[in-house]
UniProtKB/TrEMBL annotation:
Pfam (any one): Zona_pellucida
Species of provenance: Aquarana catesbeiana
Domain of life according to the entry: Eukaryota
Keyword Transferase: no
Positions of the ZP domain: 1-65
One BP annotation, GO: egg coat formation
PANTHER family recorded: ZONA PELLUCIDA SPERM-BINDING PROTEIN 3 (PTHR11576:SF2)
Xref: InterPro entries: ZP-C (IPR055355), ZP-C_dom (IPR042235), ZP_dom (IPR001507)
Entry keyword Oxidoreductase: no
GO cellular component, one term: extracellular matrix
Annotated GO MF terms: acrosin binding
Keywords: Disulfide bond
Protein name as catalogued: ZP domain-containing protein
């Protein structure tokens, strides 16, 4: 996979209960499949929960991978 590919969350949110994101097109070397699987872990928190390190909207930083 290329190191210069990226992903980003789309803001502002169209609906408060949905997160949308984009992923640059890429292919794995030697694999012609046109399908990828994205796995994520979901944590639910009360709407009254103040955002903190464990309870926040998703984000990603290449610097912390």
């Amino acid at each position: 996979m290329q190191d210069d590919s990226s992903s980003a969350f789309i803001t502002p949110r169209v609906e408060p209960d949905k997160l949308q994101f984009t992923v640059d097109a890429f292919r794995f070397l030697g694999n012609d499949a046109s399908l990828i699987y994205i796995t994520c872990y979901l944590r639910a928190a009360a709407t009254t929960q103040v955002p903190d390190a464990m309870n926040k909207a998703c984000s990603y930083s290449k610097a912390t991978k």
